[in-house]
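During the second year of the project, the team shifted from modelling isolated chains to modelling whole assemblies. The rationale, set out in the original proposal, was that interfaces cannot be judged from single-chain predictions alone. As a representative example for this report, we include one of the complexes processed in the last quarter. Its constituent sequences, exactly as entered into the pipeline, are reproduced here:
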Amino acid sequence: MIPGVHADFSQDNGWTFLVKAVLILVFLLTSVLVAIWFERKVVGRMQVRPGPNVHGPFGLLQSLADAMKLLLKEDMTVTAADKVVYLLAPMISVFCSLLVFAVVPFGPEVRLPFTDWSTPAQLTDFPVAVLYVLACASVGVYGIVLGGWSSGSTYPLLGSVRSTAQVISYELAMGLSLVSVFILAGTMSTSSIVNEQTGRWFFIPLLPAFVIYVISMIGETNRLPFDLPEAEGELVSGYMTEYSSMKFAWFFLAEYINMLNVSAVCVTLFLGGWRAPWPLSAINDGMLNTGWWPLLWFLVKVWLLMFVFVWVRGTLLRLRYDQFMVFGWKVLIPAALGWLVVLSVVQYVRIGDGVSQTTLIGVLVAIGVVVVATVMFWPSKKVAPAAPPPAEFDAFAGGFPVPPMPGQELPPSPRARRRPVTVSVDAADGADADSDPQEGTR
Amino acid sequence: MTNPYVPVLVLMAVAAVLALGGVGASAVIGPKRYNRAKLEAYECGIMPTPHAVGGGRLPIKYYLVAMTFIVFDIEVVFLYPWAVNFAYLAAYGLIAALTFLALITVPFVYEWRRGGFDWV
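Output from the structure prediction step:
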């Protein structure tokens, strides 16, 4: 037994590790193929169109066909690129995204059929497993930065700095929301956190942290409505603009694996991991929480979160970049910090002896009053000073049409002096036609 | 008992094989047709802007985000050990952590009021 870790890996050896590692990779690659199909199908249905339906039953082989096509395309290296970094960046991206699942528990101890050999359905676990997950996610950002920088092109560079600023901003909110899980669980090992959720899943007592995590996990994976690095209207395709063939495929794969990663971490930390949902968990003294059943519950929960990703994408519009950053820094992080203070005080009072329920509620009410008072009496923003008079502006400086700078004003259009076009229809008729378009056709 | 980090190394090796193998395979299988325009930087079909010497400049805002990120990332990392040992550290840990949070809030509020988070 590893100290501080609930799962027992004592029967595992080198071959087990290799088999499990290969199984994780196979699971991730097939899941990504299904996820792409799933996303296109669900978004298609949300937009009242069928989605992919040609290749294979229900179009299931569509993403496999896309992957094969990408593999057979020309592998280009743009002239302006920094060759070595350009080659390494997509590999770093996909490499880091593949590592997270090493500590995700798919289930408890499972027994291989026809043998008496049992092993946890998890590659490994150690006392700082969640920290390892965050480390993998952070190093994965290097793929994006280096990919955009080494392309030697403007759009990828802008996309990569945007993406980096976004991912690190939302990583903070994510990290802060995880602190409350550690306070409640008292450990960072994933199997132990799942074990601590035997009675209640953490998303119930930690609802604010759960909400913050779900929002920041969408920001962390650059998904709509937070997919600003790939805002097509502004940046073509962001940091992967100059990539083709398998290098592009690796970036694409890394994005979808990251979606699976954050979903799996969310399931492990907040949604009870592999545990069966309540009515099912009571059947036959927890029969559905043993053996191979937990794999089913784990996958159902992960795919539920994947559906949330697609649902959000089908529903919400892309944010403007400044709104997005303000939301991260001014809403999510203060909310996460405030929740952390509240939770730590409540938890201290709860585990400390000699404190009654009344005191607990009193303290909570007092904190609520303080928060409301702060919000109410927070000094409002000063009125902006009057704008200086518009400066001279030459609309054709240097022979090219240029936009006005702040403080400058466009000269009135020469067309503004023209007499407005009047419609030669009787006023009464026109009003009638406006009020009811069907009236005129009668 | 095996070191629990050994499986991570195994997974790293398998992942590295996949990452390298994919790119290598496409380099071998894919066609190679030279075209000067194809290898130029993409800029909506116009002649690409010459790349700035030394990578060019980026808006100062990104540096501000990076610096603020470091402050708060370190804060979060300091909070983890306290959170894990919350029950053992009890009152001492709670007061220390809350003081730490209060101290970090001061520069946060300062940056907020000075417009450090306004992306305009």
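The beta strands of chain A are 107-111, 118-121. Chain A touches chain B through 88 residues (CB under 8 Å).
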